Amino acid sequence: MSTELAPATDPDVVLVGGGIMSATLASLLGAVAPDWSVTVFESGSAVAGESSDGWNNAGTGHAALCELNYTPAGADGSVDVTKAVTINEQFEVSRQFWSHLVRGGLTGAPKEFITPVPHISFVTGEAGRTYMRTRHAAMAAQPLFSGLEYTENPAELAEWVPLMMAGRPAGQVVAATRSASGTDVDFGSLTRLLFTAAEERGVHVHVNQRVTRLERRTDGRWTVTVRDTVSGEERSVRTRFVFVGAGGGALPLLQRAGIPEIRGFGGFPVSGMFLRTRSPELVSAHQAKVYGQAAVGAPPMSVPHLDLRLIDGDHSLLFGPYAGFSPKFLKAGSMFDLPRSVKPNNLGSMLGVARTEMALTRYLVKELLQSRGARHRTLTEFVPEAEQRDWDMITAGQRVQVIKRDPRSGRGVLQFGTELVVGADGTVAGLLGASPGASTAVSAMLKVLERCFPDRIAAWRPALEEAIPSYGRRLADDPALLELVRKETTQTLELNG
Prior knowledge:
Elements: E1 13-16, H1 20-32, E2 38-41, H2 82-103, E3 114-116, E4 119-124, H3 125-140, E5 149-151, H4 154-160, H5 162-165, E6 174-179, E7 183-185, H6 187-200, E8 204-206, E9 209-216, E10 222-228, E11 234-239, E12 241-244, H7 250-257, E13 266-277, H8 280-284, E14 289-291, E15 305-311, E16 314-324, H9 337-341, H10 347-356, H11 358-368, H12 372-382, E17 392-405, E18 412-415, E19 418-422, E20 428-433, H13 441-452, H14 457-467, H15 479-492
Helix pairs in contact: 1-6, 1-13, 2-15
C-alpha cells in the first residue's frame, strides 16, 4: 500500500476510507466490473485503523443469534424477530461472498479472519426467563435459527458458560439460548486481506491521504481533492463515481459535497470502552460470545456482552460496552468534528434529538462518572468471581449515530442503525451510522451497486449470483437453498471445528 499520491490517471471509481466497507465494495467491483480502475484514499497510516480494527469493536460476527436488542418484546409479551431475521440474512450474504473469495484464492486461510464461536443469550429473573422462552419459540420457528438451543437448567449452563455460573447465587433464575453456528470475525484482518487481493488486481490503495473536498463538475464527474498528511502536498483526481466509506468521517465529507440528500442529517458521536483480560485461565473458561439485556432505560448500544475474541491470533475476553463521550467523529479525528458538523439545514434535527433523548444524555453522564470499582461491579453481574486485577480497560473506536429528520413529524430522530445516502444521479454515495455495520457490509455494498448503477445490474447479475448464490432471494423463504449455502460456506470457511 502506497503512501504516495495516486497516479496521474483519473480513476473510474474513488473509494474514501480504508475500512471494511470500501474493501468490500472494491471486491464486489472486482467481480462485476474488473476493467474499471479503482483508487482508495485512507487518511491513516494503514488500512483498517478505525472502526474496522478488531480492538475498535467493529463487530464479532453479528448474526442476530444472541443480540437481544434485535428481538424486542411488545407490550403484550410477544417477541418480534423481524429485525433478527433481516440481519441474519445479511450475515449469510457476507459469508457467501467471503466463501467465493476464498475459493478464488483470497490470500491467507479463513481462520485468519473467521472462527467458530458459540453465540449465547443469557438472562436472569422471572421476567427475563419468560421473555427468553417466548423469544426462543419465535426464533425456533424460523428456518434461519433452526438448531437454537434453550435451557434454564443451571447445571447445563455451567457447561455452556462456566466462568459466568461460578459463584452465582444458588436459586437464581437463569435462562439462555445457544447457537453452535456462531462465529467470531476479525474485521481488521479481513479488511487487510481484501485490500491485498484488490491491489493484486490493480486497485491503487493509498494511505496518509486525506480527502478534503468533493466538488461536482459541470460534466457530471467529481473532483476529489486529497492532501498528503505527512508532506501537506495537495492534488486532485477526477472520477465518475465516489463512495464515502469513511466511518464517522463520512458525514462531513458528504456535507462538503453539497448534495441535497445529506440535508437534515447530523451525527452524535459516542465512544466505547471495554474491560479486557488475556488470562489463559479465564479465556479457557469462556469459549463463547454472550449477550445479556440492557438496563431499563439504557439505549440499544449499551447491551452488555462478554465475548471471546481472536484478534491477530491472540485470544482474549472483552466485556462491555462502557459508554464514553468525545466530540471526535473518528478515533484519530478532531475535537471540532461535532461542532463543525452543525449546519443550518440540520440544526433543527440536532436540537430535536437534544430535547427528546434526555434518557440517553442521563445514561452517558452516569457512565462517564462511573468509578473503576463501579465498572467492575457491572462485570461481576456477568462474572460473579471476577477479580479486578485480571482486567484492564481499553478504549474502542468512535461511533457516530445517525440523526435524521423524520419526514412525517419534521423532528430530528436518533437511530442506531446504518443509513445509505445516495446522490440523485447515483454518482456519489456514503454510509452513515454503526450497528450492525461490518457484519452486513456485503449487503450494504450491494445496495450501493443497485442504487447507483441500476442500468448495469441486469448485466452484472450472473457474476453476483455466482459470488452470492442467494442474491435476489430470501433464505428465510427457501429452506433448501439455505441448507445448501450454509453447508458450502461452512466447509469453505472451515467452520466445522
